[in-house]
Amino acid sequence: MGENRLDEALSRLNEYIAGEPESDEAYFMRGKVYWRIGDKRQALNDYSRAVGLNPESPAARALENARDVYDFFNPDIFNP
What we know:
By secondary structure, the chain is mainly alpha-helical.
């Protein structure tokens, strides 16, 4: 991910999660990749999954920040 090879990072994280579905760190990392490629919804899903597995995960802060950003840019999403 540091070298901006996001497709490769996503592929490797998907493989890892397939074998380790209880890894909150993997979901957190995959959420970061999704965020960087612009798939905010999937990033939120992965952050939520990570927090569900481990409430102390750094994904909790990422989820909070992501929701703040998402709400800022989509204020009418919850108020049709």
